[in-house]
Amino acid sequence: MHAARLQFSIVTAACAWALSGHGQTPVPTCPPDWKLELVAAAPKIRHPSVVACAPDGRVFVAEDPMDISAPSANLALGRIICLHPGGRATVFADQLYAVFGLQYLEGKLYVLHNPKFSVFTDDHGVGRDRVDLIESTNPNPWALDWNDHVPANFRLAMDGYFYVAVGDKGLYGAVGKDGKRIDLYGGGILRLRPEATQLEVYSTGVRNILDVAVNAEDDLFTYDNTDEQQWMSRLTHMVDGGFYGYPYDFIPQQPYTLWMMADYGGGAATGALAYNEDALPSEYHGNLFLADFGKRQLLRVRIARDGGSYRAESRQDFFTNVPEDFRPVGIALAPDGLSIYICDWNHRDTKAKVEAGRLFKLSYTGPSRAAPRPDWFLPAAMGQGCSASFDELIKALAHPAQSVRLTAQRQISAKVGQASSLSERSDATDRLSRLLTDPAAPTHARWHALWTLDAIDGGLAARAAVVTAVKDRDPSVRRQAIRQLGTRRVREAAALLAEQLKDADASIRFQAATALGRLGTPSAVPALLDALDERDLFARYAAFTALNRIGGAAPSAWNAIVTGLESAKPRVREGVTSAFRDTYDATLVSILAKLVREATKPAPAREAALRVLASWHRQRPPWKGEWWAYHPVNAPPPQKTIDWAGTPTILAALREGLQEADRSVRLASLQGILEAKDTAAAPRLRELFQKEKDPEIKRELLAAFGALKDNAATKLIRNVLSLSDAALLAGAISAAEQIGGDELSEALTKFLQTNPSDRALLLKTLQALGNLKVSQARDAIAAHATSRDAAIRRQAFDALVKLGPGVALSQFPALLDHPSLAVRRSAMLALGATKSAEAVPHLLRAYSVNETRDEAISALASIPDARALDAYWAGLLAKDALLRQKCRKALQEIRQTAIPEIERRLDGMTPDIVAELQSTYRGDAEALKSRLFSVPVKKPQPSEYLDFAFKTGGDAQNGRQVFADLGRTACVKCHAVGREGGNVGPDLSTIGSQFSRRELAESILFPSKAVREGYQQVIVETKDDESFSGLVNAETAEVLVLRDGEGNLHRIPKARLQSRRASALSLMPEGLHEVLTPSEFADLVAFLESLKDDARKSGREK
Length: 1102
Fold this sequence. Notes:
Largest sheet: 5 strands, antiparallel
Number of strands: 37
Strand order of the largest sheet: 1-9-8-7-6
Structural class: alpha+beta
Helix content: 25-40%
CATH topology of the domain at 5-364: Neuraminidase
CATH class of the domain at 5-364: Mainly Beta
Shape: flat
Strand content: 15-25%
């Protein structure tokens, strides 16, 4: 490490700042009694990601050039700059990976720069003696070339642990200094001791948290990042063992997940802190401060206890008049307790060769309420020794500032550890015990006394005092005492803790259940089973989580836990099944299988046992640290394909259940076999189908025949189709489609020839015949191509296209002369879908007719062909932006033949066509040499639209109509606003709160300038010379699913792939503004700008 010295000047500003090279730059407007100061800016600091403070006022700022200006995200180019009071600066450390976690503790700076977790000794602003406490948090934290969704910032809590926010790239192979390894699949909270021991996954099931706020009682809060699939900017109370459902279990909310406190809509959550100091007015105490990169905002949230959790009582957006380049990331409280440092990325989340970044200091300008710090505090907090007596330290546990209390707590435990005699240690623990149990002492002093005792010896010497505190009149003291007993797994406290499950305070019930789970004592099972009828979400969750933990620690307890399935109370039965979720335990499998076989047991218990067993039929493949990317909710969860020790017992129990007399048990067995795809059960399923009378079970059997692709069930399915049993037909059609074969294809064709009156069955049959490519059904399908019903007509044409170009071309041309305009238009689009050159002459004939002109152009654009040049040129001037884009793409594909023809006919072209052709070929080196570019043309430039949009405010209501105009912009086809619109592109419901007017306008004018993460286009070439482009909608080991610009899904077997590459181009069409007048463009921008936070529900409701 080197210690380059830099000079900074601190520039103060309330509304604007000046700095050499930057001129006058606006900054957000603060509330009354607050001011904003610029501390430093690029090039002095670059790309600041996270900030931390030393007690002496120095500020440590981490730089992350890897995620803006560096060529690759996996480089170790990060630095930490130490800013000293008075303006001096030093490079504290360099050659770091992207730093997103930073905390100062008693002379050491802890740094999380994935994959490393390191600690440095602070030598007057220069880092010395680096130790990598964790060598690898994740093998690929820079997946997709971004250091995002990673383990990030962390905070020290009163209990002596660091709590680390972990994004959904997770932790894989993280090994602490004590040799303990942990893996965290997805996002959550990691806790560990500062020396990197006792690593533990604390909570799971969140997306992209960058920080964790810890309040004075050690409750944890996170602010999560937007996914646009109902997982928006979530404020969440994170608890021990909590699972919050991301990505597969939160739509809808499941009974086994916890829920958020509030949903603040679209944004990009970053920093978080809780105010636990004493300098600000009392109304700020306990508040959360949340930074939001997307909203360009600092949120202040007042919270209050609500049952076993908290509620968000109010939210204040701290800034007004926020400039577009204000992008807050990490935040930290200054040592004076009056100020918050804010890292400002000062740049959008796009890669660019720029030097950007600022550090601000937001300060309260009113008088400080801070109590004086003891003289010994600063040296002790700096790790420079502590001169305080034991009496002074005990007294400091009552100080109103948490920073003083935490330092005193650590100093006491250190002094007691160094005590030379047992009497000194005994005297210290006695005094702390008296403080803990003293009802007249300040509440926070009692909390810290407890955790000081815990730090000394795990609370062992003061066990009686801690047990007494469990029954204290102050619920906050009780919560801490219960938590301490659970943390240290004090098994002798089990009976006392079980009594607390009936307390009137839900927060006590929650802590008691959580502690009992950590103890793992089987004797607590009956009380916890009773607690499953609990109405408080968090307390009930803690009860079934405790049962799971107890069974895992003591498998002998599973027998008692399973008895809960026999309860007459549905909530208790449901709670027990929640306790079993993802518990692959062979002992438990045997117990549940035995319950299923006992006919005297209640049917609901046996049914529940079967459904639990079915969910464990196999395990998912082991996770190896790979990331599911930005929108995993678009794809199904990984399939369970790996047999384990319980698989044979589970499959046997499911097969046996098919013979049960009780309908609910029989149905559960059948659905379990379907879930497990147990092909060995097929003979039993066929036997059951022939004697079963229940229609619902017969429908499930048909679904199983299809899922298992049971060819031997062909006769049974044919019989259903021939008898036209209305209750079973839909299932039979689906099964026939899945199994296929000549017999079922013939049966489907015959069924279609009966001209079924049920519209849904007709559509389903047409789809099945098309997917099976049943050419014998050609005439039967074609009979529906002229239907007046648009959906039936479209399905018939789709099916005929799938039969192959030969079939389609024998049917469609005649339909181009059909009396119905709708049929003619459908025939044209279907001809385009064949992608056959033989369709071109027919489509050119349709192009010559005005009323079918646009459809003909669209179809021809799907078959790039030089014969259709006139049609493509006409399409370049269409009002439909998507059609213009398709024609540009077609012209680019046939450029070798098109450009000579353009040159030959150039003199007869209108200026607007010439301008469009120049735009189309502007990036083609050969075209640039042609005569096309020698013709001067005047075309409205994007800059003119941009200028107009800034000079004219625009009409948001008119802009809404432009947005929804399917004949021109068709924005609504790809983007959702509220509950309306498509899901090809990003949800725009709150886009106005995330981006400035300029950024919104530029995103329309230059869609490929900044493509949002998760919306990068992929281009695929197949071995059979097909080309696909679109967004990755889903991906498995076998199949890639792309969604194209029109919302169509393309399932491409990976065995067909020849090449796959990412495109720098957005799926959004270029030149969208060209179909608008400048006034309409301004209206569209005004509409997008008006889309602020929508009225989403907050709280924990579904």
